[in-house]
């Protein structure tokens, strides 16, 4: 398979005339914002479409082609949207043979592309949220559903790994936009959550999409998952981060049950 020829061919077959990308990192509020944008537009702002292509190097040609076709759909009136996490962007770039210096070329892969970025200011809360989702297997809770409240074993090493990753992902998105010469509006989750409707209106205006007041839900479609367990983990990790030296082995006290201290 010629990766770029296959990619371009599916773009043409699907009739994609413009592309709208929500660039983000895991546990940044992108799913809830993307779902609200999807309710307005019927476009897949809330789906990580290129997650399915992340293991391209293990796939048969037939399976890879099917994954690409799935990733590059649906298309509504010539418009295509996706949520794109940094690792998924990176894996797609590797599949297409585009290194860091080819940022400009990657930015023009899709027709008439506009990016919007969503970041989370509190990286400790973001890392803890990812750690909890990985530990429980619960990545989102729809409105009206109960949230599991069982115990979670604490791991400084795991949370610290995610913490460092999310810092680097934000930096790499910034570097990518600079290298590609794009000016991309960056929205901060902590500000967006104060008024989701205002943020959605602003984003849709930037993307030249019409906002429909009648499609705005009375309640958020996804629950915000931060709870007392999450806040206790944040405090414990912050305290342990102060105590940790990267030149030392992890002390025993940094691994154990996630109980408030």
Question: What can you see in these coordinates?
Answer:
Helix content is 46%, strand content 11%. It is globular and about 50 Å long. The strands form 2 sheets. The chain has a 4-stranded parallel sheet, with helices on both faces. A two-stranded antiparallel ribbon has the order 4-6. The chain has helices spanning 3-13, 30-41, 61-71, 86-95, 103-107, 123-136, 156-180, 189-192, 196-206, 228-243, and strands spanning 18-24, 79-85, 113-119, 153-155, 186-188, 255-257. The model is unreliable at 251-261 (pLDDT under 50).
Class by SSE composition: alpha/beta
The backbone outline, from C-alpha atoms, is globular
Round the mean pLDDT to the nearest integer and report it. Answer: 89
Number of helices: 10
Q: What pattern of helices and strands is seen along the backbone? A: HEHHEHHEHEHEHHHE
Spatial order of the strands forming the largest sheet: 2-1-3-5
Question: Which parts are unreliable, with pLDDT below 50 for 5 consecutive residues or more?
Answer: 251-261
User: Sheet with the most strands?
Assistant: 4 strands, parallel
């Amino acid at each position: 398979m010629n990766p770029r020829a296959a990619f371009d061919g599916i773009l043409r077959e699907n009739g994609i005339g413009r592309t709208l990308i929500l660039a983000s990192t895991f546990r940044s509020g992108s799913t809830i914002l993307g779902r609200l944008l999807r309710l307005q537009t019927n476009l897949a702002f809330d789906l990580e479409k290129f997650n399915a292509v992340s293991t391209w190097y293990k796939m048969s040609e037939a399976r890879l082609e099917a994954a690409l076709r799935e990733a590059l759909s649906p298309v509504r009136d010539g418009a295509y949207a996706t949520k794109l996490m940094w690792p998924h962007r990176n894996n797609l770039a590797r599949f297409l043979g585009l290194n860091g210096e080819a940022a400009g070329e990657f930015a023009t892969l899709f027709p008439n592309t506009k990016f919007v970025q969503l970041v989370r200011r509190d990286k400790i809360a973001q890392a803890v949220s990812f750690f909890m989702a990985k530990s429980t297997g619960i990545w989102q809770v729809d409105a009206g559903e109960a949230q599991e409240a069982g115990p979670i074993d604490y791991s400084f090493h795991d949370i610290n790994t995610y913490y460092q990753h999310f810092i680097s992902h934000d930096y790499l998105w910034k570097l990518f936009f600079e290298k590609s010469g794009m000016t991309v509006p960056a929205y901060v989750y902590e500000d967006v959550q104060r008024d989701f409707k205002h943020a959605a209106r602003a984003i849709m205006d930037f993307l030249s999409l019409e906002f429909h007041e009648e499609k705005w839900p009375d309640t958020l479609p996804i629950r915000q998952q931060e709870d007392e367990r999450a806040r206790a983990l944040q405090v414990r990790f912050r305290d342990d981060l102060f105590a940790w030296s990267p030149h030392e082995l992890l002390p025993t006290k940094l691994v154990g049950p996630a109980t408030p201290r």
